Amino acid sequence: MDRYNFKLVEKKWQAYWNKNKSFKTTLDKSKKKFYCLEMFPYPSGKIHMGHVRNYTIGDVLSRYKSMLGFNVLHPMGWDSFGLPAENAAKQNNLDPKIWTEKNISIMKTQLKKLGLSIDWDREISTCSKEYYKHQQKFFLDLYDKGLVYRKESYVNWDPIEKSVLANEQVIDGKGWRSGVTVERKKLNQWFFNISKFSEELLSGLDKLDSWPNKVKTMQKNWIGKSFGCEIDFNLKKNDQVNSIKCFTTRPDTLFGMSFLAVSIDHPISKFYKERDDFKKFKEECSKTGTTEEAIAQAEKIGFKTDLRAINPLDNTKTVPVYFANFVLMDYGFGAVFGCPAHDQRDLDFANKYKLKIMPVVEPLDSTGHEYDKNKNFVIIGQAYTGPGKIINSNFLNDLKAPEESIVKTIEYLEKNNIGKKKINFRLKDWGVSRQRYWGCPIPIVYDENNNVKKIPLENLPVELPENINLSTNGNPLDHVDSWKNITIEGKKYKRETDTLDTFVDSSWYFLRFCSPKNEVEGFDMEEVKYWMPVDQYIGGIEHAILHLLYSRFFMQAINFNHEEFNITEPFSGLFTQGMVCHETYRNQQGNWLSPEEYELAKSRGEIIKIGSPESMSKSKKNTIDPEKIIENYGADAVRIFILSDSPPEKDVQWSETGMLSSYKFTQKLWTLHQKFKNKIEENSDKKDEEISIFTNQMIEKIKYNLEKFHYNVIIANLYEFYNFFNNKLNFNINKKTLLENYIKFLSAISPIIPHFTSECLTDLKLNPFQKWPEVDKNLIKNDTVKYVIQINGKKRATITCMKDISEKELIKEIMGGESTKKIFENKKINKCFFVKNRLINILVQ
RNA sequence: GGGCGAGUGGCGGAAUUGGUAGACGCGUUGGUCUUAGGAACCAAUAGUGCAAACUGUGAAGGUUCAAAUCCUUUCUCGCCUACCA
After folding, report:
1. Nucleotide nearest to A246 (CA to C1')
2. What are the CA-CA distances from residue A464 to residues A127, A288, A450, A672 (Å)?
3. Gap from A454 CA to B16 C1', in Å?
4. How far is the CA of A776 from the C1' of B41 (A)?
5. Which site from A308, A329, A457, A714 is most exposed, i.e. has the minimal number of CB atoms within 10 Å?
6. Which residues are CB-neighbours of A780 under 8 A, at least 6 positions away?
């Protein structure tokens, strides 16, 4: 018997799909659409296992949906702007464009080898001017709508590279490449006014039923809505400043206030910046590590000013004003009032500076709390943040905290014009300026007075200059005078040399896929109306916040003053797949070894430390090259393996034995196919309902698991299917029944192993593209069922009997059954619990 | 510190609504065939026990005729987040 030649078969079908454009989609309003999108890759050079997993999941879904009759849009493109291209180009002394295009061509070939059902006619690349031209138009459109603005803001500045670093490029406060301490520098930057839509972006989450709760929670926390009020704290007579504004969620604890703290960047710092002791304090603050943990655990330190703030609820009382390291300038108003009794952080601060600690909320239940000898509630080591009754607070006394007391306090503050109710968001505006070459140019110029002017639409795109020197300090574009200086309508201007954050590129690419060739518009309204929203978006959890939030913002921004668009949520379904992991190897010198090097070292008898499975990464050398694996085992086998071992939302561990067994399984399937063909020649009149029942039941199962993304279970179903058929083929079966069920079997597994099933189907002179098999409901409706018989809650036997029989009939059956009747000898039945067609639990004495 | 999630055989993991725990695969063991096997096929495989049976889903309680699934307490691990006023 021939072995299954996957190389030949897969090559053949990939060529067939390519030639016939089998997955080309066009707008067809007579059909229901399904837009399946996987996060598009960054063209880093080669695809990795993460891509294989991501795109296999999407491909199985796309193929399944087409079989159901949906008009499926399944496109692919390239997130092709970004730093790695610039760095690689610098190293190899070539143009980022050439480097990027080479990678795209390699990766495209690799993706095709996976047998993905992609409409390649819709391929886009964000670094092409055909793409970024429209992005520049969006930018100007947003500018016109007032959703883009320019402001000075702090950036991470690398003094060696003379460039801005992204947060993730700052490691322990040092530049990831230069290794020198990163400075905070104020620069003029472009911002998208994402915070304008805080409320919409938050409430929109509730409608996203098919998003993982985890992602929704992460976004919710990121947006960070809090209810409270702003309060003006008047200062005791002072020449420079009259009041300080604070935001608080607990105005009802005002009577317990013992200090006011402001950020070192607070506007009032200008009155102190010349003082040596203040400078020293600022230095002290900057000394604390920049790792997140260090910041959180840093000691709370303050700098006492000569100012005193008046308690707005009792103007006879004043408290000192401090600069404090724990107050953030970019949240609220950069100032807080401290109530040590009811906030742990304030308590730590008060203890350090010996400030008064007076409780104003008393817990309702006294157990576990401290009281002085007069039985007054006191705060000792820990602040009390729970609910309770207001005390020591004049007109607020005895109110229920926090509900009643907050309402009453705000009422009072508003009546007396001291403060007002306020909702505060943590979400900050999105800074999109990058001092980089390889990104979308910002279509703005400045005149000699530094006034902003938009590039006229007809002059778009603003193209990146080519063949420039990338090895300059700072932004390379800043050094290209011929590009930077421009004359418009006879007037001289200087271009904006910053480029856009690459997250902008990916915030609307799913719109572009709807009409990728439209030269006039970024997207065609009719196409977008048909295709959007994306029905199923699939990608890594690492984009849970930024990319997904930015894309959601873009829909809000396009929608703003443009009701016709009417799309507020880009992705109605979201699935986040887990990572592909592999164990790590280190030799005695502590160097990482690749799996191949490990095998080699092992054969030489070296001692190798095997580490626990970790996400595949180049630095740990625990990567597996998908191309080699496909070469060795075939795409179908790889698809089976990548889906089989774990639920798709969880991490999966790469295993060579697992991969091998998937490969063997494809061989077994081929053997089964040969066995089937031999069998079909023989005829038998033997009626075999069992095979039809099993097949139909299995198809229902696979369908259920497909819909629920239980792809690992589908692989198990596939094995069961095989085991069953393989066994059945040992017997004679009615030709028609056998063929009918075998076709259903091949169809149901075709989304998973499309090359194999296409080959088998055509081998049987059938269409390689089958519809999703119809299930014969009558067949699934079995006449007989298996009952579990429990005695006092323990399983004692199973019994097969007619479906839908009554409890009485079943008991009669059990009493009469040869194997079951002895259970009841000398026993009295007290009670029965009967679950129809499933189980009976008989309680006996 | 906060948030979320998960704990099931030697391993990865099944178990739609509380209703036969361990599907399916890997591994292991035994066997068949083979010059050979890292091939193929057959069989066994949660634990204890000859067996009947008993025990078993991190731990301890609880609800229920019935709990991996629901409730309470607790432990462990993973991920995210970080002084958010």
Report:
1. B85
2. 10, 41, 22, 57
3. 58
4. 34
5. A457
6. A693, A696, A697, A700
- HEC assignment per residue over A38-75: ECCCCCCCCCCHHHHHHHHHHHHHHHHHHHCCCEEECC
Contact assessment for residue A501 and residue A507, using Cβ atoms and an 8 Å cutoff: no
Backbone angles phi, psi at A823, to 5 degrees: -60, -30
CB A669 within 8 Å of CB A734: no
The closest nt to A697, taking CA to C1', is B16
A67: confidence class by pLDDT, cuts 50, 70, 90? very high
Give, in Å, how far the C1' of B67 lies from the CA of A166. Answer: 51
Q: Which two tokens stand for residue A136?
A: 């520049």
Looking at residue A603, its pLDDT comes to 77
Identify the burial level of A56 via C-beta atoms within 10 angstroms of its C-beta, where 0-12 means exposed, 13-18 middle and 19 or more buried. Answer: buried
Look up the pTM and report it: 0.93
Strand partners, A582: A614
Name the helix (H) or strand (E) containing A672. Answer: helix A656-681
DSSP at A542: G
Backbone φ and ψ of A188, nearest 5°: -75, 125
Terminus-to-terminus CA distance in chain A, angstroms? 63
Q: For residue A140, what are its two tokens?
A: 């100007």
CB A583 within 8 A of CB A611: yes
Chain A 634..653 CB hits on strand B (< 7 A): 644-647, 650-653
Rounded Cα–Cα distance for residues A281 and A769 (Å): 72
Both structure tokens of A221: 């926390």
Interval A742-769: pLDDT, tens: 999 999 999 999 999 999 999 999 999 9
Q: Measured from the CB, is A817 under 7 Å from any atom of strand B?
A: no
Closest CA to A502 of A438, A575, A597: A438
Q: What average pLDDT does the structure give for chain A? A: 89
State both tokens at A553.
Answer: 């913002």
Residues A43, A78 contacting (CB under 8 angstroms): yes
What is this model's ipTM? 0.94
The whole-angstrom separation of Cα A214 and Cα A602 is 42
Cα A433 to chain centroid distance, Å, stands at: 23
Nucleotide nearest to A718 (CA to C1'): B24
Reported as a single tens digit per residue, the pLDDT across A499-511 is 999 999 999 999 9
Strand B atom within 7 Å of A704 CB: yes
Determine if residue A68 is left, alpha or beta; phi over 0 gives left, psi from -120 to 50 gives alpha, anything else beta.
Answer: alpha
- Minimal CA–CA distance to A748: which of A697, A791, A708, A709? A697
